[in-house]
Amino acid sequence: GGKGRGNGLHQLDHPTDVLIDKETDSLIICDQENQRIVRWSRRSGTTQGEILIGNIDCLGLAMDEQRYLYVSDWKKGEVRRYQLGEKNGTLVAGDNGQGDGLNQFNKPHYLFVDRQQNVYVSDKNNHRVMKRAKGAKEGIVVAGGQGGGSALTQLNHPNGLFVDTLGTLYVADMGNHRVMRWMQGATQGTVIVGGNGYGAGANQLGVPVGLSFDQRGNLYVADQGNDRVQRFSIEKDL
């Protein structure tokens, strides 16, 4: 990218998610408005990407330990798994068109895949996070699902996800300007960052969309409305 908005191989248009493929030392990018997944080498001198998957209304990406690529298609309301180089993929969640059933999504966005190949999906317009076990016929609600709202049992347009090895879910609760933690099996979450209304204060967020952890357990939040990335030490802040 960096060459203006466009559909050339040297351009991107509204990229919505990115991951690093360490095996090939490359970036895999959801190039949303161009309806494609592209791969860019991180080696110096790279001037353009290559199209891995075309004609897809992608929003979110994830990769498992076997290097399968998972992609959410928000228009079809589904998640597919691809071997790199494959064009059609295998449907793993969202078998029944858009909706609010346990085998449906309404604008699936961010993804997380754990070591058991369980797929977690931020089901944005259903205000919930879904978990689909490998081979299961339908998903289970692991956060939200009580309509959009600000109660501890609710989410409001959830975005970025992270699940730790204990099955604890962290979610960027975009519409509530907070990050929540849901323990495995819990019926309500805990606010760990924000939740003090939209704002630019140190204890506030404004439309948080993405999150990640480093190896030391620091939480990083893409605070979109404030044009910043914030770092939080969860142990210290709680």
TrEMBL record:
Residues 20-235 form the SMP-30/Gluconolactonase/LRE-like region domain. Keywords: Glycoprotein, Repeat, Signal. Pfam families: SGL. InterPro entries: 6-blade_b-propeller_TolB-like, NHL_repeat, SGL. NHL repeats lie at residues 99-135. GO terms for cellular component: extracellular region. It comes from the Eukaryota. This is SMP-30/Gluconolactonase/LRE-like region domain-containing protein. It comes from Rotaria magnacalcarata.
